[in-house]
């Protein structure tokens, strides 16, 4: 999903970008998608699928499946539009998962509201992310979506976001500052990322008042500074404890969520500038140079992932030799 979002706008603003690169990335992501589909189907047939949706956090995490499918379908529409069957299969799967996901969101939301369960990071906001990804998907499939449909879905996304923020804030305010910092999750970047995709959906569909979109961007920017500032404080703690290598250059799957939110913030900023909603020195600077920042983080994450895979395989080879 992260690389897909990067490919939609940020990649195209790089000087070396071309159609072939975008198409190759789309096909590579499709191969990964097929592998994941095969894996989950195999897990279901083996009776192990419940492991992936057992906890409330994992159930909210299903929102990434929706967003991932939506982004891939949008990529195909942009880069390989003649692949109609594949586009519709992925799009229909995204919509089907989203409907199933909504049932889980409402059920778990009730438990969280009545404090029977708690969640302590930004994963809950994937309810907003998935909903807005559906908005972007259906408007990519057709330019004749009635405006009231877009408005209803986008407002639902705002609703999910506000409820999620209340629940997360309730947890944050109940703990000490040091515990908050040390327990700060990479997925908390979704706090600003969910707002960015909501603003993007509002901008591209012309469904929401311009002032609301501008306030959404300003809010996303403030939250970006706040959330990433706390993340930076945590990094300083980690460096003091484990050094540079152990404090920063350690691969974690959740780090992809942070890069996804960076991509989304860049894309949202780029869109409001292109649509002449907010032309300031900040939006211009982010649009001109933000793609390089996102690329840098993405390359570092890919290197960490590959290095981590090499270590795992080396250990497995060592165990097998014994």
Automatic annotation (TrEMBL):
Highest taxon of the lineage: Bacteria
Keywords, in A-Z order: Membrane, Transmembrane, Transmembrane helix
TM region(s), chain numbering: 20-41, 62-79, 85-107, 119-141, 147-168, 189-208, 214-237, 258-277, 289-307
Nucleotide-binding in keyword set: no
This protein's name: Uncharacterized protein
Lineage: Bacteria, Pseudomonadati, Pseudomonadota, Gammaproteobacteria, Legionellales
